[in-house]
Amino acid sequence: QGGLKQCLAEFRQQLAWVERLDVTLGPVVDPVSQSASNTDAIDPENDFQREMSFYRQAQAAVLEALPRLHKLQIPTRRPDDYFAEMAKSDQQMQKIRQKLKSKQEAMERSEKAKQLRAMRKYGKKVQTEILQRRQKEKKNMLNAVKRYQKGLSDKLDFLDDEQTSSQGNKKGNANQRTKKGPNAKRRYKNQKFGFGGKKKGSKWNTKESFNDVSSFQAKVAHNKGPGKARKGGKKALNKRPGKRARQKMKNRAR
């Protein structure tokens, strides 16, 4: 025991408080009960009570140490350009970001799939309602036809309804076609080739065209116009001279 005290005296250094910054105090006063919490009344197995005791003891140390630091003119706030190394490396933080990003994307995909299922369900419901309505109308019409065939009814209102509905559909389709008009491709072809019409027999002569001879040109018709060849047309220009003519041409050249 004497040796331990001797070693403790050697380790102990008489330094100023600013070099040690040690504060030993009890918990701060509880604002609810207006009294300091009794350490004996704290259950060490109760996590909430134990953590609150540590928290209030840290509060008491801060309330005691800050005024002393201000009195010694020691800054207690971190400067704006202070750089502190993170406890985790950049690689670890990158893995965490990727994990969070993958979770977010999975949640978005799940939400989109849920919306798509809801839209399909709604579309299927609407389609089922339309089919049921059509089947009901068909059934009512068949019942009306049977009643008319059996002589139970002499009214043909169901045919009028069917005819008016079909005419309404045709009018609606015609209105849609007239409102819509030809597309750009059709308009371009109409502008380039015309708007159609009679093709077969368009070049046939009529009585008026047969009697009209104002555009007749005899020189053109009989191949006697300027620049035309004599008898034989173009072939006459390219015809080879005879043997006697060729001989005369050779003699002249000598």
From TrEMBL:
Entry keyword set: Coiled coil, Nucleus, Ribosome biogenesis
GO BP terms: namely: ribosomal large subunit biogenesis; rRNA processing
- Localization of this protein: Nucleus, Nucleolus
Gene Ontology cellular component annotations, sorted alphabetically: nuclear periphery; nucleolus; preribosome, large subunit precursor
Principal subcellular localisation of the protein: nucleus
Q: InterPro entries in the record, alphabetically?
A: Ebp2
The record's region (Disordered) falls at 102-126, 153-254
Chain intervals with Basic and acidic residues compositional bias: 102-114
Q: Where is the composition biased (Basic residues)?
A: 115-124, 177-190, 221-254
Biased amino acid composition, Polar residues? 164-176
Q: Where is the signal peptide?
A: none
UniProt keyword annotation of Cell wall biogenesis/degradation present? no
- Where, if anywhere, are coiled coils annotated? none
Biological role: Required for the processing of the 27S pre-rRNA.
Family from the record: Belongs to the EBP2 family.
Q: What is this protein called?
A: EBP2 protein
Source species of the chain: Neodrepanis coruscans (wattled asity)
Mind giving the lineage of the organism this protein is from?
Answer: Eukaryota, Metazoa, Chordata, Craniata, Vertebrata
Gene, per the UniProt record: Ebna1bp2
